[in-house]
Amino acid sequence: MIALIIRCSVFVVFAVASLYAIRHYWFTLNRLFGSQLHPYVDIDTADWPPVTVLIPAHNEEGVILQTVTSVLASDYPAMRVVVVDDGSTDDTGPLLDTHFGDDPRVKIVHQVNRGKAAALNHAMAESETEFVVTIDADTEIEPDAIRKLMRHFSDPKLAAIAGNVKVGNRSRWLTRWQALEYITSQNMEKRAFDLLNCITVVPGALGAWRKSVIESAGGITSDTVAEDADLTIAIRRLGWRIGYEEEAIAWTEAPETPGALIRQRFRWTFGTLQSFWKHNDTLFRPKYGTLGLIALPNIFVFQLVLPLISPIIDLMFLGSIAAWGLMRLKLSWLPQLNWGASDLERSVLFFLGFLIIDVLTCAVAFALERKEDWTLLIPVLLQRFYYRQLMYVVLFRSVKEAVRGRPVGWRGVEPEPPRGSKRAASRQPVSAEGN
């Protein structure tokens, strides 16, 4: 009986690995052989419309200057920047006022802490242009990034376009693993979903939008803590196109400790679950096209169900190895297990097959990126063992909190700023006003 259970578990491992493999190769083939669905203008001859860059910020004193400076270094000809300091308790606000307060291209707004969605809405209310670009306060962009996003809006059916976000701080193993994940998972998926018009998130780190479409979709709401995913799905269900521009590069600061990574991914995962639940009425409804037939089922199967059972599958695989070891020991007090070397070989082959498929898919993802650091692939197998365990923790915690209905802020469950911050936490920010 025990041997039968172990054999069944090995089959389940193989089945799940096959599902992941089919999904990865489907994404790859879509990207390699699919045709560009949306036109875009020549970047050198286009008549560029004015753009407002929106930057919400909360306790970002260590990176906010670099972010705004990178935006101002953009080669886009008609651009204005609105930065909203959302009740920061560190020196974010004073730094902005000191360095950019006299710059006519930058409008700085201070408001009491009301969350990221409110900060974005406030920034958008200050904009007078049809097109807005959203950038996170911990992200730097390449000089040509905004141009490469905006060229896609020659397509009148396009409502938003996602940029190619990469990890900038790659000095530690953990951040290098995140850089690998961005390339092989997040950006690979966007490439495939771009061709199918079912991208579910234009990231806050870098994305361009039609302001009128945002308003027609109900604006940026605080219904979820993943306001970018919620807004993207809301726009897509109205029938608009959502695209991806792989050449519009942004460099973001990735968490450098396991605790910080878990807190960040908790917010992402929790927000994704919220967005999925909010828009679950689109599931399997032809009216919503690939959004309901591909994108949301993909979230449910590959971001919720399979990751939830993956730890059990891992334990079953380890159990098959343990069963073979116990058979070799021939301990008299243990029941006899009909589990031989051929069973072990089958388990190991299934597992190695999955790893090989995973590595090959990663290599294809890197081949699609331009000027990427291939040395990130060196620890790919180690990443799969350690990093995946962290993601298990995040998912289980997200599901638990979703069931409990616990509220989550715009930084998820991240801790308060350190007590040594120069700006006392008890000091109230200035009421909403521009400079």
| Strand arrangement, major sheet | 5-8-6-7-4-1-2-3-9
How many beta-strand elements? 9
Order of helices and strands: HEHEHEHEEHEHEHHEHHHHE
> Describe the biggest sheet?
9 strands, mixed
Low-confidence stretches: 410-435
Radius of gyration from CA coordinates: 24 Å
Distance between the terminal alpha carbons, to the nearest Å? 74 Å
- Shape descriptor reads globular
Helix content: 40-55%
State mean pLDDT (0 to 100 scale): 81
Strand portion? 5-15%
- Helix vs. strand class: alpha/beta
Explain this structure to me?
The protein is α/β, with parallel strands linked by helices and 435 residues long. The chain has a domain at 1-38 and 155-415. Helix content is 51%, strand content 13%. The protein is built from twelve helices and nine strands. Helix 6 (173-196) crosses helix 11 and helix 9 crosses helix 12 (380-404).
Helix and strand arrangement:
Layout: H1 2-33, E1 51-57, H2 64-72, E2 79-86, H3 92-100, E3 106-111, H4 116-126, E4 131-134, E5 139-141, H5 145-150, E6 158-167, H6 173-196, E7 207-210, H7 211-216, H8 227-236, E8 241-252, H9 258-278, H10 290-329, H11 341-368, H12 380-404, E9 433-434
Parallel strand pairs: 1-2, 1-4, 2-3, 6-8
Antiparallel strand pairs: 3-9, 4-7, 5-8, 6-7
